[in-house]
Amino acid sequence: MISLEDIQRVANQGPYAPDWDSLNRFELPRWFKEAKFGIFIHWGLYSVPAFNNEWYSRNMYIQDHPEFAHHVATYGPQKEFGYKDFIPMFTAEKFDPEEWVHLFEAAGARYFFPVAEHHDGFQMYDSQLSSFNSVQMGPNRDVLGELKAAAKKTSLHFCTSSHRAEHWFFFGHGQEFDSDVKEPMKKGDFYWPAMPEPDNQDLYSEPYPSQEFLEDWLLRTCELIDRYQPEVLYFDWWIQHQAFKEPLKLLAAFYYNRGIQWGRPTSISYKHDAMMFGSGIIEIERGKFADAKPFYWQSDTAIARNSWCYTETLDYKSVKEIIWNLIEVVAKNGNLLLNVGPKADGSIPKRDREILLSIGEWLKVNGEGIYESKVWRKAGEGPTQLVDGQFQEDAPTCYTDEDIRFTVKGASLYAFVMEPTKEEVVITSLAVSPDQNAPDFHGIIKKVEILGHGVVPQWQQTTAGLVITLPPLSSQLPITFKITME
Fold first, then answer.
1. For 478, phi and psi rounded to 5 degrees?
2. Which three-class secondary structure string do you get for 344-399?
3. Could you say which DSSP state residue 165 is in?
C-alpha cells in the first residue's frame, strides 16, 4: 500500500519537485496536441437511479430538491434506503469494455477518460484504501483496469479523472435530518466526512478540509496513478481551494516524476487556476475561448445538455452542434473531450451510440483538417462570435453561411464552412490584397478541394475573397475546403 513517505520520496527525487518553479517546466505530450478529440465517461452508482443528473447522491439529501421527493416516492425514506443501498443494484451485467473502446475508436476519438471516482466516493477501480469500490462491491469488477486492458488492443490513449475533492461536503446535507448519513464516522466509511457544504466560490471557505481528508485525497490519487498509470489525469472543480495547494503540488511532482520513470510523459488537466499557469492543461467546462490562444487547452462537454450521466430525460445535442464545437475548439488551439453516460447495466444508450458513430463518419471525411492540425493566423471569420468562459451551452450557437473556421497542416489550409447553405462561399481572409505590408494573406493558392466530395469546385481569388462555387451537397453538416498552397 502506498504511503505518504513514498509520495514524498518520489515527488522530491526529480526531475520535478513540488513547487511551481519546477512544475512550470512541464511540457504537453505531442500526442495530446495531435489527438484533438477524446471521450469522457461518467458511469457509477448515480447511473442506477438515473434521475436528473450525476449529483443525485448530494441532492437526494436536500429536502427541497426534486431528487429528495423522487427518492422518497421511488425507494422510500433516506433513513431506510440511502445512497449506499444503490451499490448492490449496480451490477453492470452488460459492461463490455472492448465494445466500449471500439465504439470510441469508431467515433474518431484518440483518447478517453473514464471517471475513476466521482463526488459520491465510490471507486470504479481496485483500491486498498477503501472497500467501497467496484471490485469488492457492486459489479465486483475492476472497471478501470478492464478499460485500460481493452484500450491496449486499440490506438486509444488511456486517461482517467478524480472528482474526490468534493467528497468533503457531498453528503453533508444528510446530517440535517434523520437519514442514513449519520455521525460518528471514521475515515474509510462511505459517507465520511459528510461536512457542511461550504461556499464553493470562496477559495478560503469553511469548513476547511482537514489534514486527515487532504492526506486521504493524496493517498487515493497516488494509488490511482501507480495502479493504472494514466497518461493524463483530470481534476474536477474545488481543488482550487487554498487547502489543496500544497498537496496538489506534491501530487503533480509525484505524477510527473512517475511519467519520467515509465518513459511516457504525463499531464494534469485542471480548472479554475487550481494549478499555476504553465504546469498543466487548462480546462474549460461546457464552454470555449472566444479567440485562439497561444497555449494549449481542452474543452469538456457532454453529449446531453442537462446531465453528464445517463438519465431517462436526457436533452441530447445534435450531431451538427457537437461537430461545430469540435471545429471551434480545434481552430482555437484546443481539444474537445465529449462525455457519454452508459446505463447502469453497462450498455451505452442507443442515441449516444448513434451520435458517436455519426461524428466518426464525419471525421473519416474531414478529420484530415482536424487531427495533427495547428492554428492558422486567425481562427475564423464571420459574424458569429462566442463568449469566453464556462457554462455557455444553454442553447446551441447559431452559425450563418458566412461563418468559417480555419486550421493548417503541411502545405494546406483547411477552411470549415459551418453552415453550408449557399451555392457560393466567399472566404474573405483569402482576398487579394494590394498592400504587401498589411497583415493579410499574400500566398499563392495552388488547388482547392472539398474533402470527401470527389469534385474540384470552381474557384477564383478576388479582392473580395476566395470565391468558391459549391456543387450540390448531400449533407447539411459542416464541409471542409482543403486549400493547397505553393
1. -55, 145
2. CCCCCCHHHHHHHHHHHHHHHHHHHHCCCCECCCCCEECCCCCCEECCCCCCCCCC
3. G
> Strands 459-461 and 111-117: what pairing?
unpaired
Residue 454 corresponds to which cell in the numbers above? 470527389
pLDDT per position as a tens digit, 207-219: 999 999 999 999 9
Report the SS3 class of residue 293.
coil
| Cα–Cα nearest to 402, from 416, 388, 387 | 416
Distance (Å, whole) CA 45 – CA 83: 8
Specify the amino acid at residue 56.
Answer: Y
Strands 281-285 and 267-270, bridge-based pairing: parallel
In whole angstroms, give the CA distance from residue 480 to residue 470. 11
Greatest Cα pair distance in the chain: 78
Single-letter residue type at 398 = C
Considering Cα of 105, then 107, then 108, then 109, what sign does the dihedral take? Answer: negative
The 8 Å CB, 24+ separation contacts for 468-474 are 468/424, 468/425, 468/426, 468/427, 469/423, 469/424, 470/420, 470/422, 470/423, 470/424, 470/425, 473/420
- Residue partners of 380: CB distance under 8 A and separation at least 6: 328, 331, 403, 404, 405, 406
**Beta bridge pairs of residue 445:** 485
Domains in the chain, CATH or no CATH each: 4-285 (3.20.20.80), 380-485 (2.60.40.1180)
State the pairing for strand pair 160-162/232-235.
Answer: parallel
Q: Which residue has the cell 526529480?
A: 14
Residue 455 has pLDDT above 80, yes or no: no
pLDDT one-digit tens code per residue, 396-424: 899 999 999 999 999 999 999 999 999 99
Burial label, 392 (beta-carbon count in 10 A; 0-12, 13-18, 19+): middle
Q: Check: CB of residue 84 under 8 Å from CB of residue 73.
A: no
Tens of pLDDT, residue by residue over 167-207, are 999 999 999 999 999 877 888 899 999 999 999 889 999 99
Residues in the chain: 486
Distance, CA of 376 to CA of 373 (rounded, Å): 9
Kindly tell me if the per-residue pLDDT of 27 is higher than 80. Answer: yes
| Spatial CB neighbours of 462, under 8 Å, sequence gap ≥ 6 | 431, 432
CA distances from 98 to 72, 105, 275 (A): 37, 11, 34
**What are phi and psi for residue 115, nearest 5 degrees?**
-70, 120
Q: Kindly report the number of other CB atoms within 10 A of residue 4's CB atom.
A: 12
